[in-house]
Write the structure tokens for this entry.
Amino acid sequence: MNKYIERVLAETKAKNAQEPEFLQTVEEVLSSLEPVIDQHPEYEEAALLERMIEPERVIEFRVVWEDDNHKPHVNRGYRVQYNSAIGPFKGGLRFHPSVNLSVVKFLGFEQTFKDSLTGLPMGGAKGGSDFDPRGKSDREIMRFCQAFMHGLWQFIGPEVDCPAGDLGVGGREIGYLYGEYRRIKCMSENVALSGKGLSFGGSLVRPEATGFGAVYYLESVLQHENDTIKGKTIACSGFGNVCWGICTKAAQLGAKVVTLSGPDGYVYDPDGVCTKEKIDFLLEMRASGHDKVQDYADKFGCQFVAGEKPWGVKADIIMPAATQNDVNMEQAKKIVANGIKYYIEVANMPTTNDALRYLMDQKNMVVAPSKAVNAGGVSVSGLEMSQNQEHLCWTAEEVDTKLRQIMKNIHDSSAAAAERYGLGYNLVAGANIVGFQKVADAMMAQGWV
Ligand code: 2IT
């Protein structure tokens, strides 16, 4: 291991011992950067890695909201503005009980590399709250979003920071968040949030973008392997917005998603989540707020396995699209035992570090990292910002064409970077290197800040 990386990792561990998810992602990223750091001794002199690991700003705030029975509740709100060297902060907001500082920092750190990788001028940030949207009424969601924005509005804005959705934050929540922002600021400043409704500056294809982008990236991988997506079976986890986009695009291209999962277990549908009825039902399930995937099995009469993940199922491609640490070592071994060739991460950090290393060490397996595969979401958010700034409204076809091109560039530039450093077809290292390089160049050029 490179001495500088080793020292920085040890210091990071000592300083952030209470933040396991954050340490996990720092370790994963830094271990990929070894060949680059070896070639640039000036980075150590400039304390570049230490500066990258420390967020520019961490905002933590109280969120007080009233439930339908007029009872007050207190949640914690966060925005970690990680790095704005290449552009204004950009990244999602997550509402989920698992949200804490470690989770938001891991997401913000990842986002910095992801946003850089898109080629668009966006810095990295992430935010959210430990608020649990499950079982909340629409009015409660609205009041929570308003209270949350009350704590956040001063820190965001055009050219400053543009939040978007993530788990628990979709079009409805962005609408409420934007409404409150506009009320407080007394101006229509819609570049301050992305993922908006179409009637107030949202972009076509933003809801589909993460799932579509993931499948476009997958197509590039298959092309590299002289393979085709037609006829392939895909085992997915999750059943939210991202899965919906994957199912839709996979079906269009002649592939099928055969598993979905939720907190209750997984469903196996050998016919694939391919028909319009099935794909639309995903949206219904999500909107119901039950947070149960068993509803799908009940409706379409397929197998439901309680309390398990779908990683023992035989398929051509694995796409974990739920949340962090969805695949551990034990599950990675099942995937390898099934002879699966393509492991395409979609959710942010869905694989534990030991499982990721193990999968990457398999000779016949291609592993693609989430910060590249899921970058279609933030890419179309970037396109939404451009449309807002220029008062334009691109057609779905225009946005989709740009998204496809961005995903191809991300894949091709990652593959080329890995090749250049003698790492072979290593998409994980390649993505980290490309994402890192642009931010590093900008930070070196801007002095010790
Ligand atoms: O993880 C992500 O890239 C997102 N949640 C989307 C961020 C964005 O600004 O669209």
User: Anything to note?
Assistant: The longest strand covers residues 72-83. The chain has 18 helices and twelve strands. The two ends are 27 Å apart (CA to CA).
